[in-house]
């Protein structure tokens, strides 16, 4: 009976710490400076989307550098980490796109820059090569990259149509008619 109680307490302890571990993992995706920049631009959709694009491009540059230098110590683990950061940032970008789109924010300026930029990401991710250490992370990053690119193209077409019909809402940060 005592052993059973100890196991239950251990499970409760582990269950209680899981959310904190997940929160820490998400927090590690962005630096404190990047988090602050994102917060400051919460009401500026175009600037916020461009910030995410900038941060993703920085991760892409890091991935290129790591892939080019296999002699680096812990290169494979670092590559996996950067691929996972890339994926999480793509997910956050898509969450922001969905939120701003639902509010009818005019994102066309950012989307016009994001469409060609996100189209380049799969090429970089494919050049990384395959290795059991990071292959799952690479494939996940590729899927996230393709998903962003597809969403951006679709959203740009939808926004062009929406703002052609609602000229008075052009250039606004959202909260247009539903």
Automatic annotation (TrEMBL):
Signal peptide coordinates: 1-23
Residue ranges of coiled coil: 76-110
Keywords: Coiled coil, Signal
Protein name as annotated: Uncharacterized protein
């Amino acid at each position: 009976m005592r052993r059973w109680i100890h196991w239950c307490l251990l499970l409760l302890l582990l269950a209680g710490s899981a959310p904190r571990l997940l929160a820490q993992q998400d927090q590690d995706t962005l630096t404190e400076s990047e988090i602050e920049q994102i917060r400051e631009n919460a009401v500026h959709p175009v600037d916020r989307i461009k910030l995410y694009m900038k941060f993703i491009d920085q991760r892409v540059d890091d991935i290129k550098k790591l892939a080019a230098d296999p002699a680096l110590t812990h290169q494979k683990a670092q590559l996996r980490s950067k691929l996972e950061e890339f994926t999480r940032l793509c997910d956050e970008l898509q969450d922001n796109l969905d939120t701003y789109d639902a509010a009818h924010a005019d994102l066309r300026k950012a989307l016009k820059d994001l469409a060609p930029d996100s189209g380049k990401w799969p090429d970089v991710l494919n050049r990384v090569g395959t290795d059991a250490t990071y292959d799952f992370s690479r494939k996940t990053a590729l899927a996230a990259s393709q998903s962003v690119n597809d969403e951006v193209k679709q959203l740009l077409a939808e926004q062009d149509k929406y703002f052609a019909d609602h000229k008075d809402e052009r250039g606004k940060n959202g909260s247009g008619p539903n």
